[in-house]
Structure formats: C-alpha cells, structure tokens
Amino acid sequence: MHEYRSHTCNELRADHVGGIARLSGWVHRKRDHGGLLFIDLRDHYGITQCVFDSDFKDIFELAENVRAESVIRVEGEVVKRDAEVINPELPTGEIEILVKKVDILNAAEELPLPVFGEQEYPEDIRLKYRFLDLRRERIHHNIVLRSDIISSIRRRMVDQGFKEFQTPILTASSPEGARDFLVPSRMHPGKFYALPQAPQQFKQLLMIAGFDRYFQIAPCFRDEDARADRSPGEFYQLDMEMSYVTQDDVFAAIEPVMQGVFEEFSEKKVTQAPFPRITFKEAMLKYGSDKPDLRNPIEICDVTEVFDGSGFGIFAGAIKNGAVVRAVPAPSAGGNQPRSFFDKMNDWARSEGYAGLGYVRFKDGEAMGPIAKNLDEERIAKLMEIAELDGNDGVFFSCGKDEDAAKLAGHARTKIGEDLELIADDEFKFCWIVDFPMYEYDEIEKKLDFSHNPFSMPQGGLEALNTMDPADILGYQYDIVCNGIELSSGAIRNHVPEIMYKAFEIAGHGPEVVEERFAGMLNALKYGAPPHGGIAPGIDRIVMLLADEPNIREVIVFPMNQKAEDLMMNAPSEVEMKQLRELHLRTILPEPKKED
How far apart are CA 63 and CA 328, in angstroms? Predict the structure, then answer.
C-alpha cells in the first residue's frame, strides 16, 4: 500500500466495503457524538467521512484534539453507512472509514479564516492567506474550472491547425495604451526592458516569419488600476494570429472556440455561430455602448425630430445648439410602475453626474408627465412610432452632444433593464462590434489620434487615407462582446509600409517617429509581409463569466488587491542598496503630502 494513500477522498464507493483503505488529507469538519467522533477528511478530489470509536482510546483522543485544517493520514475498514445516514450530496456518501490508525502529518495552528462553509471574509484577510482561501469549495472549484477551460481552449485551437509559440517576456516598451512595467538592465546601465502589454508585435512578426497560424495562452502586463473585470498588473489572454485572412476568416476561427467552450462549461443558452455583427455606429445609437448586453431587449432610438421646434424648450433649444435626443423605452412601465419609478430614475441620473433624465409615461394610451404636456398629439404619435411604444410603456430621454447623450442613454438602458428584470440570466449572448472609426479627435490634446489599434488596416487601404476625410475612415477593427463584457479587441493588420507611414502621418507622427518607435515592425514589413489578422480574448474574463463571478479576483489563483499589492508575498517591496547599485539605480521617493 502506498505510504500516504490507497485512494483519494472522492474515490471510495459501496463496492469497496470490507476493504482496507488509507487516505491523507485535511481535517475539514469535526462532529463529536459522544462515543463516536466524525471527521470529514478532504483532499483536492473530494471528502470522505471517517469514524473514530472511543473504544480505540489513543486514536480517539488524538482525533479529538486535532485542529481543523491539520493534515492527517488515516487507515481503516471501509464500511457501509446505515440507510438513514447516507449522504446523497457526496459521491462517497454511502460509505465511511472506521479508523484503526491515524497519524498527524502536519498540525495546523488556529485559523485566521475558516475553510469550512462559505462565510464572507474581508478581502485583505483572504488575499494575505490566499492558500487557505483556495481550499474553500467555491474558490477551489473556480481555479479547477479555469484549468479545464484553458485545456479546452488549447485543444480547440490545435484542432484548427494553430501552433503554440511562446513570445518574449523581456522586451521593449511599446505604446499599447497603458503604462509599461519596466525592468532595469544590469548589463546596460540606464536602459530598461518592458514586460509586454500584449505580444502584439511578436505575433505579427511570427506571421511575417511564415508560421501562418499562431496562438498562446499569453501573460500580459499593464500598470493600470483594478476594476471588477480587470486585474491590476497581469492578466492572460488567448492570443492568436492568422495569415492570408480577411476579417470573416478570423471570426470563423474564433466563434466555434467561444461557442464550444461556453457550451461545454455551462448549461445556459449560447449564441450560435455566426455571431451577430453590429457596427460601432449602430451600437452607440441602439445600445449607448460599444459593448452591449444583448440579453437586455431595450433598444435606444433617436427622437431628435420629435423635439426639434417643439414646445419643450429645454430640448428644442439644445437641439439648435447641436444636441441630439435619445429615447430609452421602459416596456410596460407606464401601466405597471408608479410615478415614483420615473422620478427615481431622474434622481439616479443626477446622482451619476448628469443634469437629469426626462420621461413620458403612457397609461391606457394617454401620455403623461411634464414633457408630454409640451408636445402636441402629432409629436406624441411620432414618438410612439419611432420608439415603437404601446399604450402602457414609459420612455426616458437623454439630451446632449452625440457622445454624451449616448453615454447616459446606455447607462439608463442598463438600469431600466435591471430594475424591470428584463435581462435574461440563462443566456450567454455574443456579438461582434465592427467598423470602428480609424481616428478620433482628442479633445484634451486638440488633435486627431488613433481610436483603436495603430497597426490596423484602414478599410480602403492607402486610397482611403489619401482621399477621405479622416473622420470617415473606418478600420478593419473588431471587438467580441459577451453579456456586456468586452472579451477582446482584434484587427486585420496593416502589412504595407506605405500605409503605415500615411496612417501615422494623419495622426501627426512623421516618418522619423515611425522609424524610431516601430523600427523592428517596419523593417519586417519591407521584406514580404502577408496579409494577416488576429484577436486575443481575455482568459480571466471568460472564466469569470463561466464561473458566474462578479469579480475577476475570484477566478485568479493569486490575485493582487486593488492597489496592485500582493499581500501574501509582500510585493512590491523595497530591495537592498546592493541590488540598486548593480542596476545603477537610485530611488527618489515622493515628498510626503502636507496635512491640511
């Protein structure tokens, strides 16, 4: 028999009754029934109930005194439980072990947080003792699920002919849109490596090198703040790239992977390929967001014409100054909700920093509310027609410049959907957002800049760059969205040096800037680069959705806190002066803030 175990704690069944088993694991739970002591023994695989009889005094006393989460080894006879105490919730619930021998392999000290049960504990305690937190059933399950999902993704990519390659971790700084983590070079004083924000340039270079289909489960590093759906510091993505492809080919490659993985690990309904495609312009109009949650049936519409020249002076005046009006329907709210529902929505908008949220409430076909009093019957009819309202709906209005009106309308759409319980929770709804503008005007810098990825191919190529208004140029850029969460951005890449020079020129960067900052990529494009494109769905977000967790830290093995601190390993930490001298560095700490 093996020194530590003949079986795992999830393996014994009724047909093992009468045999001798040896198990090792953690003391999950103890129950003292007088002359009998029960210990639920837990390992990675499951739980087995162990029985200690007071007739065996030495082992009974040892078991009686052992703390929860101590590691023990037991040996004894597998016996069948009485019918009335069979536990159908456990795979091992028909049997128990009558312990004849026990050894304490490691005695646990008093626990800073319990493992048995799912009590909520402060995040700082959970992260400091993450190795204990990971023993808890829900978190343990999430991490196993993560491993299984990654294995499934890897298998599906290999089955499509993709080859897995590893790209460098120590590389050069690149403008991916976030701050780099810098690594000082000991051998090259004053110079720094950067941890990759993404393998973007390397995966393109792999295509130029002739490998055709690449993927990896890639670690990425960005010095950015935490959010519920974004971990600070590092994250993982399914990074992939393909040669000689169009946008449609990329979609056709990634859709069966996403659909298959979500169907494999969830019982919810999953969007069937091909996924719906929504232009960026349409998404901002109909959903007020470029990452719409399609489980919400509400669609926003433009009703500027209803209020243009109307008796409702606030909107009419704003429209003269370039504003638009967006309508957000609230199905059946006019008939089913009290007036306080509408007033509370207005209060909510103000609490979010907006001027307010106007509304019209319909009840039995009659339009009610302050705005309705300032619209004639013809305009009310037009409103109902455009917004597709019936006689007992409500409708809210967002008025302002295009982008501002869309933003408020989008937030209102989500809140109305939640408050009216319209959002289906038994579905994963995927879509593509396509046709992103190549450029946008930066109001802070007062200049034109790239709106998405500067390495993307503009639709229409060099001719579009030479002849079109930059504001009208679209890129072969796309996002994949699931239930309102952006899983990834991607693009068909620019593989022609002349287009790259022109694209950056429009954004105000001369050839010398391109040659200095992107020398490696530019040089490679001059030696026969195939058309290529790719995408990189976020692994952490995929697992978060499938685990039905609202916070991404619940699906990461050793996450940092919101301040990008590892409380368990005490990182970041100070280093010795000797190490700084080797790196030719000196630290200059910020001055302490003066108290008011």
Answer: 64
Q: Which residues pair with 437 in a beta bridge?
A: 474
Summarize pLDDT for 128-166 with one digit per residue, the tens: 999 999 999 999 999 999 999 999 999 999 999 999 999
- Do β-strands 213-222 and 233-243 pair in parallel, antiparallel, or remain unpaired? antiparallel
Give 50's contacts (C-beta < 8 A, 6+ positions apart): 23, 38, 39, 40, 41, 74, 76, 96, 97, 99
Query: What are the CA-CA distances from residue 163 to residues 8, 156, 207, 491 (Å)?
Result: 36, 11, 12, 20
Whether the CB-CB separation of 359 and 394 falls below 8 Å is answered with yes
Residues 6+ apart with CB under 8 A from 316: 307, 308, 309, 310
* Rounded Cα gap, residues 194 and 199, in angstroms: 12
- Tens of pLDDT, residues 312-343: 999 999 999 999 999 999 999 999 999 999 99
What average pLDDT does this structure show over 65-77?
A: 97
Nearest to 27 by CA among 13, 10, 12, 43: 43
| Cα–Cα distance measured from residue 409 to residue 325, given in angstroms and rounded to the nearest whole number | 9
Question: How far apart are the C-alpha atoms of 331 and 421, rounded to whole Å?
Answer: 11
Task: Quote the pTM value.
Answer: 0.93
pLDDT at 458 over 60: yes
Pairing of strands 20-33, 36-42: antiparallel
**Reduced 3-state DSSP string for 48-107:** EEEEEECCCHHHHHHHHHCCCCCEEEEEEEEEECCHHHCCCCCCCCCEEEEEEEEEEEEC
